[in-house]
Write a structure and sequence with these properties.
By secondary structure, this protein is of the alpha+beta class. It has one helix and three strands; from the N terminus they run E-E-E-H. The longest helix is centred in the C-terminal third of the chain and has 11 residues. It is globular and about 35 Å long. It starts with a strand and ends with a helix.
């Protein structure tokens, strides 16, 4: 899961601890999943099964979404 919320932004993979940081105040200009900053040939080898987009920053909703995505 990923949450973009200024200084409270974070990303989490599977059941691991979330990595937090400051994504700034600007809206993301696009969505690139699993890209390294070293160039356009550095993309991850994975499939996206489903993306859930929400306009809320709620820990319970995020936990429920994470639990649901782990069932796919």
């Amino acid at each position: 899961t990923a949450m973009f919320n200024g200084a409270s932004s974070s990303s989490q993979v599977d059941g691991n601890s979330a990595v937090t940081g400051d994504a700034g105040t600007a809206a993301p200009g696009g969505l690139t999943l699993c890209s390294l900053p070293s160039g356009i040939t550095a993309f991850g080898n994975f499939q996206v099964k489903e993306i859930i987009l929400r306009n809320v920053a709620d820990a319970t909703i995020r936990a429920n979404d994470q639990a649901y995505l782990q069932t796919l």
